[in-house]
Amino acid sequence: MLAHDSGWVQRIDLGAVLDALPPQTIVEMAVRAGDFVTDGMPLATVRTEANGQPDDRVTGAVRSAVEIGADPTLEQDLGYGITLLVDIAERAGAGSSSDSTTVREVVLHVGIVLRALLLRDLPPAWRTGSAGRAILLPASSPSATTSPPRSNASASRARSPRPSPAVC
């Protein structure tokens, strides 16, 4: 499934993608919020047990769940927020009229964010729904490479051939 526009991935509605998937279908996302994509760049691959192309409803749901815009946003992109804070600190500390108070405040706020991240579990690299529906997210951290837990449905899929990819 390819992007129809160029810009920043501002948001991905994973719930809408899961709701649109037929049973035994896996979507492998190629992008995440905060990535820059160009027209024609892969957004996702849909794998079905039926060995065929996903229907227009599935491809439309996946494509519309990936919001692409001219500017990055803070909604699902923590890295962008940290980058903005670092830019503020860098500008405040540069030149002859440096503002050490602003630099200190930025360091304190980045520390608050980093502490909060260290104290919580990272989200899994996959989302699952009923009847073998799943979304695999691109690796973004060392924990993203771990395998999802196997349920009865996923265990039976593991014994059968992998669903074939559909390029849409």
UniProtKB/TrEMBL annotation:
Low complexity bias (residue ranges): 138-158
Annotated spans, Disordered: 138-168
Pfam family, one: DUF2254
Protein name according to UniProt: DUF2254 family protein
Source organism: Blastococcus brunescens
